[in-house]
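Protein in question quoted in full.
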Amino acid sequence: MYLKSLSLVNFRNYVRLEMDLSPHITVLQGDNAQGKTNFLESIYYLVTANSPRAEADRQLINWLADEDVIPYARLVGQVVRQETTTQIEITLIKNQQTGKVAENSALRKAIRINGVNRRVTDLVGKAHVALFLPQDIQLVDGPPDGRRRYLDALLCQIDPRYYRALQKYSQVAYQRNHLLRLLREHEDPEQLLFWDRQLVEEGAYLISRRRWLVDRLNEFTGQIHPRLTGQEEHLKLQYCPSVRLEEEAGGGYQLAMPLDGVADTRPEVGHIAQAFATQLAPLRREEIERGTSLLGPHRDDLRFWVNGVDMTIYGSRGQQRTIALATKLAEVEWLHQETGEIPILLLDDMISELDAARRRYLLETLNRAQQVIITTTDIGDYAADFLQQACLLRVWQGRIEPLALEKA
């Protein structure tokens, strides 16, 4: 699986870009703020219709596009997978207000696959991608919402139903919170029943799939992390749902796990929904007083334990960076197992962040992948034999051109 070509119009600092991509290794060299990360982001967005960096899609549109009659950005790429070529096109169009685009104006996203209008869920399975960023350490030392987004982004790459459930859950939680605030003035809890049912139904599926994913990632981190630490440390990921799922003293609820796939999650989803509904009811008065939903996937977390110690709290900077790398490498192996193909690997100036041992392990993964795209500020971070097998490019002010190595 690889991205054969890429076309960008008004995406970030790329006003116009048309290029073919190497099906193997590509190294993009450039100074900071020239467009290296933007280029990787465009590929990730083309595959997932989601940005790992932008808070809103309108931030992806080049600011110069606001001067156009219809401000827009367009991404087009051809993905080759199992000898089949698929063209993906995503267009972002800003709506205008009195002739001028306002910061909070609405944006329309149009997706076309092989020239036919499609939904975001239709992108699932067309290609898969794994993105390595220097700020991946925030997965460990950052706030819980970043860890939730990480799990969601992975599951949305393989499970269309998860994407739909996530969208529906977010809408339901928003509407429910609005109603909770209204009920502080005119309390009528019966109005919540409709939203409670939907919150539980969609939330139970999210919880079941997140637990399944973390179990699978643990299968790989259990092998990868000891190799990165000289067999001295052992990593275990723990999904921590706000809904209590294990049997407690005096309770009669017990969850049957593990999950083995979408088709096998239905009984577990029912068990989770039962626990969710049971624990939600006693919180109703407090939720009305506080005007927010206090239980559900939006309050869950992911923890990282090394030799029994919670690394999100007590890990050193070096330990947290190693955990993040091990988790991202496990992501690659998981996607490989689920899809039968190693995903397109995107690495943003990662090599300079690693010591020799971790660098060797990462390069082993790169050598197994069909397509790897790497950015760097210093081409000297890579060995000459590695560069000889790569397509070398230079990024400068939103333009990309061939890069020739200086002869020694």
Notes: DSSP finds eleven helices and 15 strands in the chain. Residues 40 and 283 are 44 Å apart (CA to CA). The domain at 144-338 is CATH 1.20.1050.90 (Glutathione S-transferase Yfyf (Class Pi); Chain A, domain 2).
